[in-house]
């Protein structure tokens, strides 16, 4: 019966309490098969069989199934009688994609079973699988979730550090040159910082909610690790807020520099206009085609006019320097 849904399953594991691990399929993934162990089933939500399996064979409440397969989700923690629904988001480290285009991971957690679904690949899941393959498996369902959160927070930390380096480079660039495509890069970083903060803030609340739940199968040491992860997440949120403020300052500095350059160009044009305005007036006056203009028959008249114009320019420049306009 479950063979029709094998394509929907990315991987399945059974862990015993002594650290033994084996890969399983859906045919041996019922809750009753994990009496002295726990299982982890990870599904691809893009596969058509995932939704059908969750509705027909997962034994989850319809409300929980709808939350697991929802098109758009926000991080949250929703306790139920049989377990806990935990929805988190991880940074997108897939090639060619933006880190702030965060990937949702939906988790159903019971004492002896974890079901997770995702639409896109999440590097934190891959990191957890590599940990399992190194013979470092979790010993309980809550330890698996804590390990996953730990991988996610490391990826978030690396992303925040990357943005920190980018922002520092832009700060140095603006202070020294303020040329090129800096404005676009600043806007991109600010957008990414805002997006990360928008999803990480409710994620902190979801983890804190999980910490406060009185569930006897969540061990004390795992709660300590969750608290540490939550504290690290708070620190990264504070770093994001600080970087947003720094990026705003850098953007303001860039705007000021661009405004100063524009003002300098306008000022230069104004000086040139002020110098040539009287010259243009005189040459225009001498160029009118009416009788009686002086010097029409004098061969030295042109030289005299040029000398007068040069003298006017020199006098204007001297006055402007005296006024400290130049």
Explain what this protein looks like in three dimensions.
Helix content is 56%, strand content 13%. It has 326 residues and is an alpha+beta fold. A seven-stranded mixed sheet has the order 2-1-3-7-6-5-4, with helices on both faces. The protein is rod-shaped and about 120 Å long. InterPro entries: CorA_cytoplasmic_dom, CorA_TM1_TM2, MgTranspt_CorA/ZnTranspt_ZntB. It is a multi-pass membrane protein. This is Zinc transporter ZntB. One of its GO terms (molecular function) is cobalt ion binding.
Secondary-structure topology with pairs:
Elements: E1 9-16, E2 21-23, E3 37-44, H1 48-56, H2 62-69, E4 76-79, E5 84-90, E6 103-109, E7 113-118, H3 123-133, H4 141-176, H5 182-212, H6 220-286, H7 301-322
Parallel strand pairs: 3-7
Antiparallel strand pairs: 1-2, 1-3, 4-5, 5-6, 6-7
Helix pairs in contact: 3-4, 4-5, 4-6, 5-6, 6-7
Task: Write a short abstract of this structure.
The protein is an alpha+beta fold. It has helices spanning 48-56, 62-69, 123-133, 141-176, 182-212, 220-286, 301-322, and strands spanning 9-16, 21-23, 37-44, 76-79, 84-90, 103-109, 113-118.
Radius of gyration: 35 Å
The backbone outline, from C-alpha atoms, is rod-shaped
Q: Given this structure, which CATH class of the largest domain is correct?
A: Alpha Beta
What do we call the CATH homologous superfamily of the largest domain? Answer: CorA soluble domain-like
In percent, how helical is the residue content? 55-70%
Series of secondary-structure elements, N-terminal to C-terminal? EEEHHEEEEHHHHH
Question: Would you identify the regions where 5 or more consecutive residues have pLDDT less than 50?
Answer: none
**Number of helix segments?**
7
Average pLDDT reading:
87
Total discrete domains: 2
**Main sheet: strand order:** 2-1-3-7-6-5-4
Structural class: alpha+beta
Number of strands: 7
- The N- and C-terminal alpha carbons lie at a distance of 88 Å
Main pleated-sheet profile: 7 strands, mixed
Q: Could you say what the CATH architecture of the largest domain is?
A: 2-Layer Sandwich
Percent of residues in β-strands: 5-15%
Provide the CATH topology of the largest domain: Beta Polymerase, domain 2
Protein name: Zinc transporter ZntB
GO molecular function, one term: magnesium ion binding
Organism: Oceanospirillum sediminis
InterPro entries: CorA_cytoplasmic_dom, CorA_TM1_TM2, MgTranspt_CorA/ZnTranspt_ZntB
């Amino acid at each position: 019966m479950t063979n029709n849904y094998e394509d929907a399953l990315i991987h399945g594991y059974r862990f015993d309490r002594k650290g033994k691990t084996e890969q399983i399929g859906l045919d041996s993934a019922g809750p009753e098969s994990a009496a002295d162990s726990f299982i982890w089933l990870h599904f691809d939500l893009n596969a058509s069989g995932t939704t059908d399996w969750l509705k027909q064979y997962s034994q989850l409440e319809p409300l929980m199934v709808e939350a697991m397969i929802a098109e758009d989700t926000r991080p949250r923690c929703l306790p139920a009688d049989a377990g806990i629904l935990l929805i988190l988001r991880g940074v997108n480290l897939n090639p060619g994609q933006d880190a702030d285009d965060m990937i949702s991971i939906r988790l159903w957690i019971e004492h002896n079973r974890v079901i997770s679904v995702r639409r896109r690949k999440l590097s934190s899941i891959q990191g957890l699988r590599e940990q399992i393959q190194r013979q470092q498996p979790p010993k309980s369902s809550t330890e698996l979730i804590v390990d996953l959160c730990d991988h996610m927070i490391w990826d978030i930390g690396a992303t925040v550090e990357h943005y920190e380096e980018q922002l520092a480079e832009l700060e140095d660039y603006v202070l020294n040159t303020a040329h090129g495509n800096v404005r676009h890069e600043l806007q991109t970083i600010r957008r990414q910082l805002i997006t990360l903060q928008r999803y990480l803030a409710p994620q902190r609340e979801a983890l804190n909610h999980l910490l406060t739940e009185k569930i006897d199968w969540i061990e004390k040491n795992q709660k300590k690790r969750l608290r540490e992860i939550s504290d690290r997440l708070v620190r990264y949120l504070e770093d994001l807020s600080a970087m947003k403020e720094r990026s705003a300052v850098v953007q303001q500095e860039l705007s000021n520099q661009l405004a100063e350059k524009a003002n300098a160009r306008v000022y230069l044009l104004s000086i040139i206009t002020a110098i040539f305005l009287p010259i243009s007036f005189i040459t225009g006056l001498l160029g009118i085609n009416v009788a009686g203009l002086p010097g029409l028959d004098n061969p030295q008249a042109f030289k005299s006019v040029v000398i007068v114009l040069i003298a006017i320019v020199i006098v204007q420049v001297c006055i402007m320097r005296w006024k400290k306009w130049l």
